[in-house]
Design goal:
The protein has eleven helices and no strands. Helix 3 runs parallel beside helix 5, helix 4 crosses helix 11 and helix 5 runs antiparallel to helix 11. The protein has one domain. By secondary structure, the protein is an all-alpha fold.
């Protein structure tokens, strides 16, 4: 085994663990904040979202737009919205729908990266938004997709970057399936926190 391959695994593990820890800390902040507001200030998403609260199609479209534009609104807020019925089966359906939307937005991002890679718009986005992840793509290849799928790294932005370098679309589809694992794990934590 070469020195590079011996060092690569620890670097990959550190990169994944660092970003997983960041994700769990962010999840903890959101969940604790939600519980605190709900218990002390009679906070409900219904009052925040108004008429949109009971319009799943609109909420899903907002989520799709957010995910396609580098995850402007964290998915955890949409999972909290999914608690509205109080029924586990409906909650699971909503979380699975959100994970499918996120997965599809990654595919859209991949296509945007592949299609727009030679445009001035893409070069500007690369410099300002996701160019900083290019070194990680050079170091980790497709593993970066797995890390982005599981952690708060900008999933759609990474998808665009990966698409722009002619990465295998088939491999991208397989690696990005880890996005469902993130939604299931975070969804479970949010459901349990709501019961608490």
């Amino acid at each position: 085994m070469s020195t590079k391959s011996q060092n690569e695994l620890p670097d990959r593990s550190k990169f994944l663990l660092k970003n997983l820890l960041r994700g769990f800390m962010w999840l903890a902040v959101i969940v604790v904040g939600f519980i605190y507001l709900r218990n002390n200030y009679d906070f409900t998403l219904e009052t925040v979202l108004g008429p949109v609260y009971d319009q799943p199609t609109i909420v899903y479209l907002v989520f799709l737009a957010s995910e396609a534009i580098f995850g402007i609104i964290p998915p955890e807020f949409f999972m909290i919205w999914s608690l509205r019925s109080g029924e586990l089966s409906l909650y699971i359906q909503n979380v699975l729908a959100l994970s499918a939307i996120s997965y599809v937005s990654g595919i859209i991002g991949f296509g945007i990266g592949a299609y727009l890679k030679n445009t001035r718009f893409y070069r500007m986005m690369k410099v300002r938004v996701f160019g900083k992840f290019e070194k990680h793509l050079n170091n980790y290849g497709g593993f970066l997709v797995i890390v982005a799928a599981l952690t708060p790294l900008p999933f759609s932005g990474i998808a665009m970057l990966v698409g722009s370098v002619h990465y295998s679309f088939k491999k991208y589809l397989w690696f990005s399936l880890f996005r469902f694992l993130r939604f299931v794990a975070y969804g479970f934590v949010i459901w349990e926190a709501n019961v608490f």
